[in-house]
């Protein structure tokens, strides 16, 4: 799975939110980052549902980080933005999705599984604090 603009926009918005001294609204972020507001609002809501952001209502409302940047993993951001974790190959996550119907007999399956595990571990060990 390639990471899409959703993950890019999530990371860019989290950078802005983490540097703000007050809650940041979706419209402000959309204007600042030149991102379509409706698309960004959906991403922000998904991150709030996943406990990455906290949504505050009212005249001075907006989004703030729900946790410290060192406690927010890149994997959790990708999941919130994409709706699933990244997979190196189509069959990386679930053997039953093998496009060739070679479940259990695929000669590269051990390599794919090992590679996917390394990617998962890397992204789970990487936090916002590591990249901001």
Automatic annotation (TrEMBL):
It comes from the Bacteria. Coiled coil: none annotated. One of its GO terms (cellular component) is cytosol. SUPFAM superfamilies: Winged helix' DNA-binding domain. InterPro entries: Tscrpt_reg_Rrf2, WH-like_DNA-bd_sf, WH_DNA-bd_sf. PANTHER family: RRF2 FAMILY PROTEIN, WINGED HELIX-TURN-HELIX TRANSCRIPTIONAL REGULATOR, RRF2 FAMILY. This is Rrf2 family transcriptional regulator. It comes from Sulfurovum lithotrophicum. The lineage of its organism: Bacteria, Pseudomonadati, Campylobacterota, Epsilonproteobacteria, Campylobacterales.
